[in-house]
Every structure is written in C-alpha cells, then in structure tokens.
Design brief:
GO terms for molecular function: glucan endo-1,3-alpha-glucosidase activity. It holds the Pfam family Glyco_hydro_71. This protein is an alpha+beta fold and 375 residues long. The protein folds into two domains: 154 residues, Glycosidases (TIM Barrel, Alpha-Beta Barrel); 219 residues, no CATH class. The chain is built from eight helices and 13 strands. The longest helix has 15 residues. 30% of the residues are buried.
Length: 375
C-alpha cells in the first residue's frame, strides 16, 4: 500500500457512511507496519474516521507477537474506542490456549493481563468462529471476551481445506443481510469486506501492488464491485437510526431510483476444459441469474423496471417504495442491462454491464466472479 492509496480508501469508505476499517493484521513485517502507518495518517485527515486492529490468528501464534501494535496505536486520535476502551478483534483464535488450561485462560493471561499491566483495557470482540462445542455455551467458555464478531455468519458452513478453487453462491445474499441486520439491530456491524480480492468478497478498490505476485488479478481485473456501495448510505442511515422498515431505504442522492445488479459472465454449463484447475468446487450450486436490487422513492408504483439479457427482455417489474430485490433465472449469452421508466415512458435510470455473458471459455480461467453494475 502507498500513502495516497490509503487516503483514497478512507475517503471513499467515509463517503458511503462507513465509520471505521477493521485492519486485518497478519504480520508485523515492515510492509504491514508501513500500511498501518499510512492508514492512520490518512484517517487523521478525516476527523471522524476510525481504525481498529483485527489480528489474524491463522498467522499469529501468540499475543506477544502483536501486543506492541496495540501499545503503539491505542491512544491515536483515529483508533476506535467503545466506552473509552480501544476496540480489538481477531480472525479465529478460539482454539489457541498458549500453554494455559483453556483458550479463555490463555487469552486472559497472555493478552488481557500484559495490556492491563500497562493501563490498557481493551474492548475485546474476537471472531472466534473456529470455536468448538455448542453456540449456547459460548459465553460460558469465553468469559475473557466483551462480545463476538460472527465472521462465518456471512455464508454457509464449509470445512477448512487447502484448495482455494471453490465457489459459494451469492445471488441475493446482500439484500437478505440488509433486511436481517435492520430486523436484528446488532450493536456493531462489520461489512465483509472492503478489499479481500483473494476471496472475491470486496466492494472497494483493489490496488495492484497488494496482490502482486499472485494470480488474483486474473480473477479480479475488470470485475469492479464498487456498485454494491450504492445501497450503503440509506442502509447505514437506517441501521444507525434503529429503523427496521425497509420502505425507508430510498435513494440518498436525490434520485427517484437507484440500485445495483450483478451477474456471472460465465454460464454454469461452461466446461472450462482449458483451465488447469478445472471448474471450482461447488460450481453446481451456481445459478445463471440476473440479480437486482432497486431503491425507489414514494412514487415507486409509477415506475417500470425492464431487465434485458442477451438483447431480449428477461423480465419486468413494478417496484414498491424502499428496498426491492429480485434474482431472475434464465441469464442469456450476450449483453446485460436494465432500464427504469416513469409513467410517461421517460428513462429515469439505466445501467449496462461492461462484460457480456459467454457460454464457455476457449482460453484462460474459469472465472465465476461477479460483474457488478451500479446505477
């Protein structure tokens, strides 16, 4: 990461209503600590934007490896605190006891106590998704925590493995989670993720130097996901206000309608015979669908949404005020687009994918990444 890239990331995240970045830290090498410095410098330019650490316990083996980062940054003006306590999270770590009688005792002795000895009382909300046993006994097994981040709640359970060539279906998961979040009203909301290009669940920018030396660019070049940001401003506003009714989710930019659609440019039936890795594990769960979310204002009943796939009309709908979502089967080879017209037939919103849908790959990789189009 470069300093100017950190500034752009912070600026763009704040512009859609995001309050903070969780910094997934997996190393204390110079490249990592430099990126941390750049992000804190960038956040300081935007008074209300915050950062907090989430330590990757797949890579770290003991808290002593990262406690110095907390000591260094917890008092920074841009470090996020909850009720006066610096907020700290993890990715996994529920099975690490660090030589103590239990994981909770290990985290207490080797994480909590060394920090408390220096006057640092953190608000500890780890993503202990790797915990064993019943969820109902979780808080009893881990009295060391102040809360828990449900990382693996973003998708169905899948056992860990060494093969990275796999596919998990998405379709309308985004709209489903918006409805669930507003209904459940959790204390904190973490959106997974800003820039994890390696797992394709990103909605921010992908900087080339961050994935240099990998084949990730093969799957992400041309697959901009920033269109998903279109839904965030009204959603975040409603979440913070405690509003549960999705009819309140109207465009925040003054438009009558706005939204996003996404599709896979490669049909499920593709053979991908020229990809040495073959089709991704789980490919049979994919659906050749045109996925669409539309936010509409109070005059929604006067609008008509026309969806085109392969130059033919795939479907049409009349929206209601607020959040509307559809997953339309029958995606066809060719271009993909949407057009929304008012009662007078005037086009009030439109969008067109930059990638056409194809039936097979004659060369290259079997790429099931989404093409995302905001409008």
């Amino acid at each position: 990461m470069q300093p100017w890239q950190a500034v752009i990331d912070v600026q763009e995240a704040q512009s859609v209503g995001i309050d903070a970045f969780a910094l997934n830290v997996a190393s204390t090498d110079t490249w990592s600590t430099n990126a941390i410095q750049y992000l804190f410098d960038a956040a300081a330019q935007y008074n209300n934007f915050k950062l907090f650490f989430s330590f990757d316990m797949i890579h770290f083996t003991h808290p002593s490896q990262f406690l110095g980062l907390i000591e260094q940054w917890h008092n920074h003006q841009s470090y996020y605190s909850h009720n006066g306590h610096p907020f700290v999270s993890t990715f996994y770590g529920a099975r690490l006891s660090f030589g103590e009688s239990s994981p909770s005792n290990g985290w207490q002795k080797h994480y909590r106590e060394p920090l408390q000895a220096k006057g640092i009382w953190t608000y500890f909300v780890p993503a202990f998704s790797d915990a064993m046993g019943s969820p109902t006994g979780f808080t009893y097994a881990f009295p060391v925590i102040d809360g828990v981040m449900n990382w693996d709640g973003a998708w169905p359970y899948e056992s860990d493995g060494q093969v990275d060539n796999w596919y998990r279906r998405g379709e309308l998961n985004y709209a489903t989670r918006i409805r669930q979040v507003l209904s459940l009203a959790p204390d904190f909301l973490e959106i997974v993720t800003w820039n994890d290009a390696g797992e394709s669940h990103y909605f921010g920018k992908i900087w080339p130097d961050s994935i240099a030396g990998t084949n990730i660019q093969t799957y992400t070049d041309g697959y901009d996901h920033s269109g998903w940001q279109k839904l965030l401003p009204p959603f975040i506003k409603a979440y913070k206000a405690g509003i549960k009714d999705v009819s309140s989710l109207i465009p925040s930019d003054g438009k009558a309608v706005s939204g996003v659609f996404w599709y896979r440019p490669l049909l499920k039936s593709a053979s991908c015979i020229n990809d040495f890795m073959g089709k991704p594990r789980g490919w049979m769960n994919a659906e050749d669908n045109f996925n669409l979310v539309v936010l509409a204002d109070a005059r929604a009943s006067e609008y008509t949404i026309n969806i085109y796939s392969g130059y033919d009309m795939l479907a049409w709908y009349r929206p209601v005020q607020g959040l509307n979502s559809w997953s339309i089967p029958g995606l066809r080879i060719g271009s993909q687009s949407i057009e929304i017209v008012d009662i007078n037939g005037r086009v009030i919103a439109s969008g067109k994918g930059t990638m056409t849908v194809i039936g097979d790959m004659s060369h290259g990789v079997c790429n099931y990444n989404y093409q995302v189009v905001g409008f």
